[in-house]
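=== RUN LOG ===
request id: a7f3
mode: sequence -> structure
chains: 1
length: 278
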Amino acid sequence: MIWMVFVFDIDGTLLEKGSELDSKTRDFLLRLSQDHTLVFASGRMYRSVKKLLERELGKIFPIIAYNGALIVDESGKILYEATLDSEIAENVIVFLRSKGFHRQAYVCDILFVEEDNEKAKDYSLHSNVEYVVVDDLAKLCRQKPPLKLLVIDENRDKLRTLAQELKKSFPVDAYGSFPTYLEIVPPDVSKGKALEILARIKGFSLEETVAFGDSDNDLGLLETAAIGIAVGNATEILKSRADYVTKGLFSEGVVEGVEAVLSGVVVPGKRFGASSIR
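=== RESULT ===
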C-alpha cells in the first residue's frame, strides 16, 4: 500500500452541521490514520479544531487553522503563523462597522466581538468556543494583530459584494467559507499555501497529497494537492476546479473519495466528474 497524506476540510465536508462526526466516518478516519497521515484544514480557530479532534477521534493530528494563517503539528508545536497588519485590520473593522456588518476578530486564538448578539452566540455554539466582548475591536486590533477577521451575514449576495469591496479597498483576501461567513485574511494566506509549508517542514511531497473540500476557501487547497476532491454539496466554483466530484454529500462523499483514490480509480493528473467513474 502506498502511504499518502489526506487533508480534510471540516465544516461542510466532514460535518454537515453541528460538531459531531457520525460513527461510520469516525471509524473510517481512525482506520485510515493507521496507514496514512491525516491533516485537518479549517477556517476555524485552532482550539476549536483541537477540541473537535480530541472529542471525536481521541487524538490530535496536524492542523491548518484560520484558513492557513496558523499551522500546528500533532504535538502542539506552532510551525507557522501569519497575522493581518494591525493598521489594516483596524481600518477594516472601522469599515465593517460603518456598513453595519457583524464582525469578529481572532487574536492569540481567542475570539473577540463588539456585540453580544445572536450571531456571536450561534458561532460560539457551532465552534464550541467562548467569546470575549470588547468595546472597540479596532482598538484591540491596533494593539495586537489578529490572525483573521470574520463577517457573519445571512445574505450571500451581500457577502459576495462585500468581499469585492474589501479586496479593492484593502490589501487583504476575502472569501466565503460557511454559507453565512466571510473570511478576511492576509493576501498571501490560504490553505493551499499552508499545505506547501507543512509539506516542506514535515518532509513529504505534494505528489503524495489528497485534499477534500466544499467551499471557495478550499480552492487553493484542492489546487495544491496532487488530487483535489470536492464533495457533492460543494460550491459550483470548487466543483469546476476539482479533479473529482463525489456523488455523496458531506462525509459520505469523503469516504467515497478516499476509497476511489485507494482503489486507483482516481489518480493524479486526470480529472473525473462524479458521473464519469460510475
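=== NOTES ===
The chain has ten helices and 14 strands.
The chain has a mean pLDDT of 94.
=== END ===
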